[in-house]
């Protein structure tokens, strides 16, 4: 199937690996896949310079303090909302502050008072997320290995800023994936044996593989299936807000913007070879179902969003997904650890298990017969 890859799109792997039949002769590594433990979290924004008081006062060092013990696995994956940027202006924030035209044919009038250059105040409703680059190490320190950039904020400051974000993440030892041409294939080594894990990100925006094109999505998944042992597909789609906890049975929209027929799409990529599907985008938790024995997590909600994200009600309820897959990608286990996020603080354990209650309710309503059930300890039980 791998030979079909070029007929779909040209893909440059985010992390190169030796094909199983071309390992160095003296490496001592054999391609003998084993089970993997994968950790997934929802939307992440460490802080943004585009909003008043948008930067955490402690340099973000407490953001993950209450959950870093949960972020340990073979791969630890989050959805990074925004770019890493210390300068520049986004089209989402209106015109740049220095747009006044200067007539070079006329001599400027002498100023009565010395001119004072003031730093423009960020608009109070500027939802373009520019995270200062010096906050990026918090992600590595927390345990993240892979960051998804297939979302509606990855291009807030243009392609150059997104590429710079990718470079910074790589320099810190993390793997960005999600933009067109960036598919993560990660070799995991254990006791002289290697397992290849693939990650593909989809969204409804031009910088990423398009989940609105279901046939093309399935063709890409099918093309990559033969290159890896375990293949997980993530997506950023669906309507947003506190009322978005239900997964639509048909196309979803954000205002008039199409955001995917998520049930149809998720099942199509599993038919094409995905071992699991993990979603985000609605900013709330959604239901979990099993399709042909493969799990679909329709949204992990907000995870660590310091400013610019409403955290009222279900918007502040979240969870960490701990997913175990066998060497051939078959489902072995899953647990969703319930968390709560208080505005201005990072995620923390939730003794009331609101996440479990919410997921069980909407899974039963949206997926009768195929919905998962979370046990008291958060273990995901197939139907």
Describe this entry's structure for a reader:
- This protein has a single domain, classed as Metallo-dependent phosphatases (Purple Acid Phosphatase, chain A, domain 2).
- α4 (214-225) runs parallel beside α5.
- The chain is globular and about 50 Å long.
- The chain has six helices and 22 strands.
- With 383 residues, the protein is an alpha/beta fold.
Assigned CATH class: Alpha Beta
What Rg, in angstroms, do the CA atoms define?
22 Å
Let me know the number of strands. 22
Number of domains: 1
Give the helix/strand class. alpha/beta
Separation, N- and C-terminal Cα atoms: 32 Å
Main sheet overview: 8 strands, mixed
Please bin the fraction of helical residues: 10-25%
Corresponding CATH superfamily: Metallo-dependent phosphatases
General form: globular
Instruction: Give me the strand/helix succession.
Output: HEEEEEHEHEEEEHEEEHEEEEEEEHEE
CATH topology: Purple Acid Phosphatase, chain A, domain 2
Mean pLDDT score? 88
Uncertain segments? 1-26, 99-108
β-strand percent reads 25-35%
How many distinct helices?
A: 6
CATH architecture: 4-Layer Sandwich
Q: What is the topology?
A:
Blueprint: H1 5-8, E1 12-13, E2 36-45, E3 75-80, E4 83-84, E5 130-131, H2 137-142, E6 146-148, H3 158-171, E7 175-177, E8 182-190, E9 193-203, E10 209-210, H4 214-225, E11 230-236, E12 253-254, E13 257-258, H5 262-271, E14 276-280, E15 288-291, E16 294-297, E17 302-305, E18 317-325, E19 331-341, E20 347-349, H6 354-366, E21 373-374, E22 380-381
Helix pairs in contact: 4-5
